[in-house]
Design a protein that fits this description.
The complex is a heterodimer. Chain A is of the alpha/beta class. Chain A folds into two domains: 259 residues, Aconitase, domain 3; 138 residues, Aconitase, domain 3. In chain A, strands 4-3-2-5-6 form a five-stranded parallel beta sheet, covered by helices on one side. In chain A, strands 16-15-14-17-18 form a five-stranded parallel beta sheet. A four-stranded parallel beta sheet of chain A has the order 10-9-8-11, with helices on one face. In chain A, helix 10 packs parallel to helix 13. In chain B, strand 2, helix 4 and strand 3 form a beta-alpha-beta unit. The longest helix of chain B has 10 residues. By secondary structure, chain B is of the alpha/beta class. Chain B is built from eight helices and seven strands, in the order E-H-H-H-E-H-E-H-E-H-E-E-E-H-H. Chain B has a seven-stranded mixed beta sheet with strand order 4-3-2-1-5-6-7. Chain B is globular, with a radius of gyration of 15 Å. The chains are: A alpha/beta, B alpha/beta. Chains A and B meet through helix 2, helix 3 and helix 5 of A and helix 4, helix 5 and helix 8 of B.
């Protein structure tokens, strides 16, 4: 029986000629990732190890992005703990304020993630790198610690759901709409323990940034990973960003899938996930009148250059509605600079939005945009759970950068054409 | 290995943001995290929970973030075991890795209500609802998982193996 793309990568990393869904394997890791929230717990676990040291100082990435620049004293202590650990073990890929960005935008940009890699990260959105044809998945701090010490992790080989992508999306439909549509269709546990494997000619109509967004939110369907085939666009991206050799894996023709769906990009509409689950989706024409208080455009899901270009296109020459706070967060320093050079930041500031340093802050209710009781936010982030962005009685509506930008202009959830 | 206690019951998709809200993630101290465990879904939980008690829930318990702070908070609050219809995969790994027993058992999730007195035998996987006089066969932990739990987590277990 054939293997899926994910299974082929895992088999190679485990030194096996073949693996089957459900099989327990131990795989070699190409990269172990942690951030300022999860790494301190991992470092504390590392201290318990009788063996000293890390498996490879160049294959660990530590990114201070969640509560950095430090939001309070406790966060400062956490960052200090990671900084000292990185110095002690001479971790080459330690990213602090000035170099850091939101981890899942930063690592591909830095060329640290390429096709064929096996990557674990103590952050659930580690699945983002599947856009480049890597196997990457989120784990907890203890797995991160064991990974940093040994360079290995155990996995249960996942089965997969196949999405055959066809057609071309209309102007304002982006990767966010694709993945929200899928989560709405299969549910927040629709892919529990499984891979989402994307195939089909329609993928050529998705930019790399669209693909990062789609793979990023695989976890919101419960998936272990989401993965794209490596085409010319992905190869160009890797050659531009990385010195590392990549390896292209393809699913076998007779690979077995638990379920198969066709996604016709041409039929998709702008999609919004209502509180309090990413599966509570409505297309923009079904939304009705939903007044809002805040807009966040950014995050590991939608803080890349394409996202900012789309938002700026909608907001150009317009004003954010009175009493709406609009927070734009370029995901990395490089994106920030490029957005500045393209004039996007000027567009945002002239419209009355603010532009923040890269941080995960508002997405998880950390800082830089906390919601009060009863407030509503349209956000390009990835989760809209109870209390996610602040008060337990606040609400988050997940949407694309185009919808978020239009909503900032009108003060209510709006289609990009209305913005 | 057995545990017994009272049940706190929740529904589908209990996410890690309600188990331990991110506003408390500037700490990694188990005691401090335990003080806010389940705060956004059940304010009374931390006042009522006693050592040995259980959390029982429906589908997809622990979905969302990879924060290990979630099972750490539950364990430090005194909960002896979480029983659910299904678990989100990162939460499942994290719970085992820190030595918090969890059991997938759809029948038990349906047949146990808030306040029921329950006993779990980890060796056999048998869950007994003493209040209702019902028993359920949950999956017994494989030996290596029992060893991780007895060692209070994966790292201690790896150390012992070496």
């Amino acid at each position: 029986m054939g293997m899926t793309m994910t299974q082929k990568i895992l088999a190679a990393a485990a030194g096996l000629s073949e693996v089957k869904a459900g099989q327990l394997i131990e795989a070699d890791l190409d990269l172990v990732l942690g951030n300022d929230i999860t790494s301190p717990v991992a470092i504390h676990e590392m201290d318990k190890f009788t063996a000293d040291g890390v498996f490879h100082k160049d294959k660990i990435a530590l990114v201070m992005d969640h509560f950095a620049p430090n939001k309070d004293i406790k966060s400062a202590q956490h960052c200090k703990c990671v900084r000292e650990f990185a110095a002690k073990h001479e971790i080459s890929n330690y990213f602090d304020v000035g170099e850091m960005g939101i981890e899942h935008a930063l690592l591909p940009e830095q060329g640290l993630t390429v096709a064929g890699d096996v990557i674990i990260g103590a952050d659930s959105h580690t699945c983002t790198y599947g856009a480049l044809g890597a196997f990457s998945t989120g784990v907890g701090s203890t797995d991160m610690a064991a990974g940093m010490a040994t360079g290995k992790a155990w996995f249960k080989v996942p089965s997969a759901i196949k999405f055959n992508v066809v057609g071309k999306p209309s102007k304002w439909v982006s990767g966010k709409d694709v993945i929200l549509h899928i989560i709405g269709m299969i549910g927040v546990d629709g892919a529990l323990y499984k891979s989402l494997e994307f195939v089909g000619e329609g993928i050529a109509n998705l930019t790399m940034d669209d693909r990062f967004t789609i793979a990023n939110m695989a976890i919101e369907a419960g998936a272990k990973n989401g993965i794209f085939p490596v085409d010319a666009l992905a190869e160009t991206y890797m050659k531009e960003h990385s010195q590392r050799a990549y390896k292209i894996y393809e699913a076998d023709e007779d690979a077995e899938y638990d379920e198969e769906y066709t996604i016709d990009l041409a039929t998709l509409k702008s999609t919004v996930a209502f509180p309090h689950l990413p599966e509570n989706t409505k297309t923009i024409d079904e939304v009705g009148e939903v007044k809002i208080d805040q807009v966040v455009i950014g995050s590991c899901t939608n803080g890349r250059l394409d996202d900012l270009r789309i938002a700026a296109e909608v907001m150009k020459g317009k004003k954010v509605a009175k009493n709406i706070r609009c927070i734009v967060i370029p995901a990395t320093q490089r994106i920030y600079l490029e957005a500045m050079e393209e004039g996007l930041l000027r567009t945002f500031i002239e419209a009355g939005a603010i532009v923040s340093t890269p941080t995960c802050g508002p997405c998880l209710g950390g800082y830089m945009g906390i919601l009060a009781e009863g407030e509503r936010c349209v956000s390009t982030t990835n989760r809209n759970f109870v209390g996610r962005m602040g008060h337990v009685e606040s609400e988050v509506y997940l949407a694309s950068p185009a919808v978020a930008a239009a909503s900032a202009i009108t003060g209510k959830i709006s289609a990009p054409e209305e913005g | 290995m057995k545990a017994s206690g009272t049940v706190f019951k929740y529904g589908d998709n209990v996410d890690t943001d309600v188990i331990i809200p991110a506003r408390y993630l500037n700490s990694s101290d188990p005691k401090e995290l335990a003080e806010h465990c389940m705060e956004d879904i059940d304010k009374e939980f931390v006042n009522k929970v006693k050592a040995g008690d259980f959390i029982v829930a429906d589908k997809n318990f622990g979905c969302g973030s990879s924060r290990e702070h979630a099972p750490i908070a539950i364990k430090a609050a005194g909960v002896s075991c979480v029983i659910a219809e299904t678990f989100a995969r990162i939460f499942y790994r994290n719970a085992i890795n820190i030595g918090l027993p969890i059991i997938e058992c759809p029948e038990a999730a349906k047949g146990i209500e808030a306040g029921d007195e329950v006993e779990v035998d980890f060796d056999s996987g048998i869950i007994t609802n003493k209040t209702k006089g019902l028993t359920f066969q949950g999956q017994a932990f494989p030996e290596f998982m029992q060893k991780i739990i007895k060692s209070e987590g994966l790292i201690n277990y790896i150390n012992k193996k070496q």
